[in-house]
């Protein structure tokens, strides 16, 4: 179980994973050895799976992004997922509840490529309907 100190530590790391142990310990008002022990426990418990960088907009390749909502025929999901994996522009496939069964996140270099990808998706046997949402601008990003 995580306590308030663990949550504070994770929040601190989420805002800047490059902070030194000494700086984090000072900000959390704990001993450096306590901080190190907490980090090791969180890593061992797989609460912290790794440390990485998050690229800003300036470093990212300019890509057209879209979300595609997909309705599928019953019992067709395994075959559809296999076919979707073969489309390199699809970054993520998420199962959903409600009117749509799947949510696809897509990144393409142009509208022409997006159009081709959408044609590939709708041509997959078992897909009944799609609805495409093109991302315009990012107003909030809390993703770690």
Topology:
Blueprint: H1 4-15, H2 21-28, H3 32-44, E1 64-72, H4 77-85, E2 90-95, E3 102-108, H5 111-122, E4 127-134
Antiparallel strand pairs: 1-3, 1-4, 2-3
Helix pairs in contact: 2-3
Features:
21% strand, Arc Repressor Mutant, subunit A, 144 residues, 5 helices, four-stranded antiparallel beta sheet, elongated, Alpha-Beta Plaits
Summary of the model, kept short:
The protein is α+β, with helices and mostly antiparallel strands and 144 residues long.
- The CATH class of the largest domain is Alpha Beta
| Secondary structure: helix percent | 25-40%
Uncertain parts: none
* SSE arrangement, N to C: HHHEHEEHE
How does this structure look, described?
This protein is α+β, with helices and mostly antiparallel strands and 144 residues long. It folds into 2 domains: 41 residues, Arc Repressor Mutant, subunit A; 71 residues, Lrp/AsnC effector binding domain/regulation of amino acid metabolism (RAM) domain (Alpha-Beta Plaits, 2-Layer Sandwich), CATH 3.30.70. The protein has 5 helices and 4 strands; from the N terminus they run αααβαββαβ. The chain has a 4-stranded antiparallel sheet, covered by helices on one side. A hairpin with a 6-residue loop joins strand 2 and strand 3. Helix 2 packs across helix 3. The longest helix has 13 residues. The protein is elongated and about 60 Å long.
């Amino acid at each position: 179980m995580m306590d308030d100190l663990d949550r504070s530590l994770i929040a601190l790391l989420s805002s800047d994973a490059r902070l030194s142990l000494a700086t984090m310990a000072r900000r959390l008002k704990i001993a450096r050895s306590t901080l190190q022990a907490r980090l090791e426990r969180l890593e061992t418990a797989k609460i912290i799976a790794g440390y990485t960088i998050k690229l800003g907009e300036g470093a990212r390749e300019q890509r057209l992004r879209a979300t595609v909502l997909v309705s599928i025929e019953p019992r067709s999901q395994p075959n559809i997922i296999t076919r979707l994996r073969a489309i390199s522009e699809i970054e993520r496939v998420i199962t959903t509840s409600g009117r749509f069964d799947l949510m696809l996140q897509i990144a393409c270099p142009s509208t022409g490529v997006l159009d081709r990808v959408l044609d590939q998706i709708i041509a997959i046997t078992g897909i009944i309907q799609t609805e495409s949402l093109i991302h315009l601008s990012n107003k909030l990003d809390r993703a770690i």
